[in-house]
Known about the structure:
The protein is an alpha/beta fold.
Amino acid sequence: PSRTFHGNNRLLTSPIISYYESINQHKRELPEYFNFAGDVLDEWARLEKDGRKAANPAFWWVNDEGEEVKWSFEELGCLSRKAANVLSEGFGLQRGDRVVAVLPRVPEWWLLNVACMRAGIVFIPGTSQLTAKDILYRLQASKAKCFITSDTLAPAVESVLPDSQFLKSKLIVGRGSRAGWLSLKELL
């Protein structure tokens, strides 16, 4: 059987459905540990590199001004490993630690999301419309150790820093900089 997905004309083909049906019927072994970054993205990069899969962008982003970022699976894998190292080695975050990311939908949002998957760090996204009160609530409820945002959104975080006892690291994404914050661009 095949059907359209959310009104899209692309079909969910029967091999995909049959694969999931075989898992549900316990005909396939589920891995004890699964990591999307390593088990899927890195595998696709390897298949492309070996010539067994056609090269397609893993990520393609275009903003309103026409600026474009396009990463292959290999590039996304490499960049996400670097970002995971920044979070784990640079900031001392460990598997299960939490980071709050309040960013507009820029390429780094997806990069950091994959990096957190890779490192086992819990990525907590937040809309750029959050108020200082909203940010404080998320920091306290999640016990996040790291906050990631842009230089324009950082003042809202700074206003609640005295009340966020678990926060240890602050990371700026984008072209700007801010005193007391580390820059993802520089660390990568």
